[in-house]
Amino acid sequence: MHLRVINPTTTTSWVPDTLAMFEDAASDGTTVTVATIPAGTPSIESRRDEALVTPWVLRAAQAADAEGCDAIAVDCMLDPGVHAAREVVGIPVLGPCEASMHLAATLGHRFSVISVAEHHRDLMIDQARRYGVEPRLASVRSLQIPVLELEDDPDATFRTMVARAREAVQHDHAQAIVLGCTGLAGQAAQVQSALEAEGIGVPVIDPSAAATRMLETIVAMGLAGSLITYPRRSGATSAWPEPLTRH
């Protein structure tokens, strides 16, 4: 299986870590490649950002389909362009938010999302509502660290993640935790271990890993999006510019 990961931002410095995170989550036999959109925003932290990058996500999805990829993951918790892309390509397209929220809802009655900024709270609530799991969303707790600053002090970011997850369990009655930014990918197991050391036994979900494994399952089962839900729209992006940066 060939999984194409679309980096829906113009920040190319994330690409090596993105590739490593998805490769670590993938099964043997899955090849992962990353494509970065050539225009848009450095990070996606608002509905405006999502709107700006979506046309480029659609173009990148078409390119992945044309190149023979088997599935596409869009590497952002707002899942920008994911549902629109299902109308322009014939291969499965999934975002980490949809995958991780549905997974969390199977592992506990209530889950919390650990996001990066307070204004993301409403965005995550909107996502939970869109995916039909809003009644299971216990809370959205914020790190209060902008996306582009998450790696400035990794130890402080990790400590804050653990603290917000602890608060979600103790105060909001969460029974599962979703890391609410793909910039936090690769740390779910460590956060879960830190909570277990405090006697808090809840699953902590890495959104990138959830999307990877769900896509592998969809492909292995020979499934794709419903054509009733996502009727195919072809030709609408044929006039868009071609350039993509691949790594």
UniProtKB/TrEMBL annotation:
User: Which InterPro entries does the annotation name?
Assistant: Asp/Glu/hydantoin_racemase, Hydantoin_racemase-like, Iso_Racemase_Enz_sf
Q: Which family does it belong to?
A: Belongs to the HyuE racemase family.
Q: What is this protein called?
A: Asp/Glu racemase
